[in-house]
């Protein structure tokens, strides 16, 4: 029968196990009582209760000494292992509560994972080297489903619309920029209107993916027909293609941080913000390890982002 199906009255207590181990190794009740910092009658009572619970005699008693029975020889091994496991559990839980170790599972869209998470994990490891991080990179269309399915502690990305059961903590609000290789026509630093963007070949994700819907809505509002030259599934691919001179990519600045060949122009009329958030189930609590990872993300993003 599994242990969790037995009644508590059928199982030895921790105090009884400690009494067994102490008497077994000390050879008498007096020394065991000193080791346990209790009285001799208390140790004797614990042993008798344990024998009654197990249905065996553990020690043959005489006026001068206790003699271990065969049952005691077998029982003490179980007792020592059980006490060691309990101590290990206490130490392990203390380490988890102090974020000295643990495991964090994060779901992120690929572009965000590449831009933010390596730096945040480096920050985390500098303070909490025992914490392990698992990253599940998903497409924008699978982001919400993965969090709903509880395959993760939290997600890092963009929640396109309020979603029942999910909450978000905003990490960064970034104004979208246009990025391309520097040229006489495309100089970094100056602002660019969406109407001006319409003059350039654009590389972007397919319709229905991530940032594309927002771009189309803004272009329509500005009366601009975007020149979509290349369509891809992942924003990171669009960035890499722009770095090869194949067109202009529209993205949050944080997504471009690892691509130093590109120069950026802030898009205006209108200015469009892209929100990057920690997204999680409303009824889910964060472990100390997850809290430490969140702190590292905030540190990397910075208050001014």
What report would you give on this structure?
- One of its GO terms (molecular function) is DNA binding.
- This is DNA-binding transcriptional LysR family regulator.
- InterPro entries: HTH-type_LysR_regulators, LysR_HTH_N, LysR_subst-bd, WH-like_DNA-bd_sf, WH_DNA-bd_sf.
- This protein is an alpha/beta fold and 305 residues long.
- It has 3 domains: 3-97, Orthogonal Bundle (Arc Repressor Mutant, subunit A); 101-169 and 278-301, 3-Layer(aba) Sandwich (D-Maltodextrin-Binding Protein, domain 2); 177-271, Periplasmic binding protein-like II (D-Maltodextrin-Binding Protein, domain 2, 3-Layer(aba) Sandwich), CATH 3.40.190.10.
- Helices cover 42% and strands 24% of the residues.
- It has a 6-stranded mixed β-sheet with strand order 8-12-7-11-9-10. The protein has a 5-stranded mixed β-sheet with strand order 4-3-5-13-6. Strands 1-2 form a two-stranded antiparallel ribbon.
- α6 crosses α11 (288-301).
- The chain is rod-shaped.
- The relative contact order is 0.14.
Task: Sum up the structure in keywords.
alpha/beta; 305 residues; D-Maltodextrin-Binding Protein, domain 2; rod-shaped; 24% strand; five-stranded mixed beta sheet; Arc Repressor Mutant, subunit A
CATH architecture of the largest domain: Orthogonal Bundle
Percent in strands = 15-25%
Structural class category: alpha/beta
How is the CATH topology of the largest domain named?
Arc Repressor Mutant, subunit A
Pfam family, one: LysR_substrate
Domain HTH lysR-type: 12-69
InterPro entries: HTH-type_LysR_regulators, LysR_HTH_N, LysR_subst-bd, WH-like_DNA-bd_sf, WH_DNA-bd_sf
Keywords: DNA-binding, Transcription, Transcription regulation
